[in-house]
Amino acid sequence: MQTILKIDPTDNLIVALQDLRKEQRVHWNDEAYVLRSDVKAKHKFATEDIAPGDIVSLYGVPVGKATRPITRGEAITTENIKHYAAPVSLDDVAPYDWQQPDVSVWQQRTFKGIVREDGRVATANYWLVIPLVFCENRNVQRVTDALNDALGYANNGLKNFARQVTSAGALNDNRHLPFPHLDGIRCITVNSGCGGATSDSMTMCDVLAAYSDHPNV
Questions:
Q1: Structural domain harbouring 52
Q2: pLDDT under 50 in the chain at which residues?
Q3: pTM of structure
């Protein structure tokens, strides 16, 4: 049974496929390694001696730098490496030259839309219910379902069929909408919140703000 895996030939890390013991001898491509420490399954050990500041690689790419001397066969942990990624350069990327299309043929055409105060045009008009933390998702969904049901925007075919048959005696879709200009109510649930990093919270707020600022809202 294979106990280790070297993902890329250029890697100086090997992955343990099961718990390995200190002093255990393992082999990869006819090369033997004697472990200098216990290595848990899915963790890695060094294939060579690594000096402080040297790069450790996995999948053929840099994934960290050694913070102290690491001996061949020693387990890789947060105590002996720190995160590192290779610098990215866009110098060799050709600039994209966008050419504005000719829209003159459509300039005088119109459609039945909604002109907002800031001049933007919408194709629909929705209310959004947005929580700021994931623990409110269920409450927000219940509020949205209740509003959609009470205001006539719920789209439950079987429920509507039953109501129409029992109350009107005939099938029709002449629902009374208190807000005829409104196309519906939607909830935007989130999967983050309490305990998240500040950068993640800022990104989430940017996304929610973009939803809120959409012309269709």
A1: 4-83
A2: 169-171
A3: 0.46
